[in-house]
Amino acid sequence: MNITAPYSDTLDLIGNTPIVRLAGPSEAAGCDIYGKCEYANPGASVKDRAALAIIRDAEQRGDLKPGGTVVEGTAGNTGIGIALVANALGYKTIIVMPDNQSKEKMDTLRALGAELVLVPPTKFANPGHFVHTSRRLAEETEGAVWANQFDNIANRKAHIEGTAPELWEQLEGRIDGFTCAAGTGGTIAGVGMGLKERDENCMIALTDPHGAALFNYYANGELKAEGSSVAEGIGQGRITANLEGAPIDTQFRISDEEGLEWVARLLREEGLCLGLSSGINVAGAIALGKKLVAEGRTDARVATILCDTGFRYLSSLYSADWLREKGLPVFDWLEGT
User: Fold this and answer.
1) How many Cα atoms within 13 Å fall on the side-chain side of residue 284?
2) Range 10-41+162-326 has CATH code 3.40.50.1100
3) Which GO terms describe its molecular function (predicted)?
4) Is 111 exposed, middle or buried (0-12, 13-18, 19+ CB in 10 A)?
5) 34: enclosing H helix or E strand
6) Mean pLDDT, the chain, as a whole number?
7) What residue ranges of the chain are covered by domains with CATH 3.40.50.1100?
8) DSSP letters along 119-133, please?
9) Distance in angstroms (rounded) separating the CA atoms of residues 211 and 226
10) How many percent of the chain have pLDDT more than 70?
11) Radius of gyration of the chain from Cα atoms?
């Protein structure tokens, strides 16, 4: 175990997350599957990285001044990251979120002191969409900046300069493949770009949930959604600024049921309590691993992102009633509850 010296600043706790070999997924893929433990960030998700990068960028550009406010539209995790970073730097936070996201995220944001604005979920073309609502609030609020995580490329820069080199160092300069889902696109694009700088042969794969349009875009050149998913914070129907130029080599589509299977197995067999986006990412990593093995790379190493903690979904993903309501399989240990 590597023991680091004390950090001098609490914001230094963001990033430098551990990585772990996942036994069950590695066996299923026939090669080594690694999960980067982004739930170890202070806000318990990968979105802490984007939150810090976006706020620092706004400061450097002179747009965010002492005592200012950061406004953002989010499925929850970016808002939590922004609230924590803003608290540490003396800013206020206004977060706009669809009202169908987990109760735990809403409660967490309120507990952190953020002003929470809930709006009905709707398509991006609707002016009432949470992204457009957050932009208008930022324009109407004195001293406010709009984080704009979807189209602010400070987001993906955080992964080019942070996540990618961490993965490269942790896996000793040998990563044969990387995959994750896209919400804003910052993680898949940024990590992909950072890894390609180091090894152009590293295969970058998009793992898309049903209901998102990117699988068809990268497979067939058409933004076309099929099916639906209950996963929060992933799935995209447009090419955001963060996704522009993303080095996607291949793509997989993963169902909620397959993602849930790995959420259940990782908890039951390996003691990791994760959200559905992590389960979908792991299923995608297994698919990528199998592809590489089929191509003769039997010693392949594939990395993915364990996005956030399952403790953020106790009232949804880990509720038997909620799973039944959504027509999804109930974890066996929840039967009877």
Assistant:
1) 34
2) yes
3) transferase activity, transferring alkyl or aryl (other than methyl) groups
4) exposed
5) strand 32-37
6) 96
7) 10-41+162-326, 46-146
8) E----TTSTTSHHHH
9) 5
10) 99
11) 19
Please give the Cα distance from 144 to 219 (Å, whole number): 40
Task: Return the amino acid letter for 65.
Answer: K
The residues assigned a catalytic role are: 47
- How many Å apart are CA 166 and CA 291, to the nearest integer? 25
Mean pLDDT of 66-70: 97
How far is the C-alpha of 255 from the C-alpha of 137, rounded, in Å?
A: 35
Query: If we measure between CA atoms, which residue out of 122, 120, 81 comes closest to residue 100?
Result: 120
- Determine how β-strand 19-21 pairs with β-strand 32-37: antiparallel
State the sign of the Cα–Cα–Cα–Cα dihedral 34, 52, 192, 224: positive
Which among 91, 18, 7, 11 has a CA at the least distance from the CA of 52? 11
Q: How many degrees, rounded to 5, is the angle at CA 134 between CA 115 and CA 309? A: 65
**pTM value?**
0.96
In what helix (H) or strand (E) does residue 321 lie, and over which residues does it extend?
A: helix 320-325
**Residue ranges of the alpha helices (H) in 30-115?**
47-60, 77-89, 103-111
Predicted local confidence at residue 335, as pLDDT: 87
At 140-195, the pLDDT tens digits run 999 999 999 999 999 999 999 999 999 999 999 999 999 999 999 999 999 999 99
Task: For residue 78, give the 3-state DSSP assignment.
Answer: helix
pLDDT, residue 4, reads 73
For residue 113 the two structure tokens come to 């002191």
**In this predicted model, what pLDDT tens digit does every residue of 176-185 receive, in sequence order?**
999 999 999 9
- Is the four-CA dihedral 237, 241, 245, 248 of positive or negative sign? negative
pLDDT over 70 (residue 2): no
Please provide the CATH number assigned to the domain covering 46-146: 3.40.50.1100
Ramachandran area for residue 292 (φ above 0: left; ψ -120 to 50: alpha; else beta):
alpha
Amino acid at 203: M
